[in-house]
Write a structure and sequence with these properties.
Elements (H helix, E strand, L loop, with lengths): L1 H15 L15 H4 L10 E10 L7 E12 L4 E12 L5 E11 L1 E4 L2 E15 L8 H5 L13 E14 L3 E8 L18 E14 L5 E14 L2 E12 L2 E8 L11 E9 L3 E10 L9 E11 L16
Antiparallel strand pairs: 1-2, 1-15, 2-3, 3-4, 4-6, 5-6, 6-7, 7-8, 8-9, 9-10, 10-11, 11-12, 12-13, 13-14, 14-15
Amino acid sequence: MRRLIVIIIIAWIALKGIVAQDPQFSQFYSNPLYLAPSFAGAAGGSRICANFRDQWISLPSTFMTYSFSYDHYFSNFKSGFGLLGYKDAAGTGQLGTLSLGVQYSYNFMAFKNIIVRPGIHFSYKEHGLAWDKLDFIDEIMFPGGSTTQPKPLEKTRDVDLALSTLVYAKRFWAGVTVDHLLRPNVSLYADKTLVPVKVSVFGGIELVRKGRLLKPVEETMTLAYLFKTQGPFTQLDLGVYWHKNPLVLGLWYRGIPPFNSQRGDALILLLGYKTANFNIGYSYDLTISNLIGQALGSHEVSMSVKFALPRKTKKGEVPCPEF
């Protein structure tokens, strides 16, 4: 019965052309190019990131998102270049989006010890549905029957644009991203259903920073936040990271009561391993909203590799955590 309910919901979404919210990652700082194109080149050399999220694992058909990115910093031009691709698939019908894009960022010193990095992201998007994997009510009640719903397009294709700005110093950072400026169409029929503009505001501050002179930082504690609004929906993530080389622990709260139920949406637990060139993290979203008991939680895994780094860490390194 639960599988049937999921099938009905996905079919209804596809037929009515309702726009789902963008894929989200709990470890958003481990997917920096997805968060803001200003992070392109922020590692100082080359960086490869891979992310996977399996949402609401107790449902028979879950919501999976895959992301992959590469970026590099060209120090002679004070510029960062990035490539970002992601794909999400929701439910039995695999309703989802494939996005491939290029990014550019430029950094400059605005004030003493304060650096600004504007960024731009241009992307190509495909939105589609695996129509042959859906079962409709008349087909279930009358085996051999056929649905009377008209078959939609297999995919819609469009282009999109995002802009961002990142401001940071040694111990703090803040930024904003405005996505879907071109309002891409995701309707599978002749009418248009446009993705609403999404605004993300993020930032944080290092409260603890321990290390010896001329040695890598050994311990940090960081507070961070991410606020997002898209159409009628808003979301706030507040959390703390503790890093003592090489262990990373994190605790996050997601929600804006009473908009996400009286308790909020989720508590997020993070465990990570971090070195100068390699990071890997695992997080679990513990559902505390009204979906508790129906959608138990979400798994997420992130990994990044850095190479071609400068021999010395340059002044002005972005201080935000990578988990």
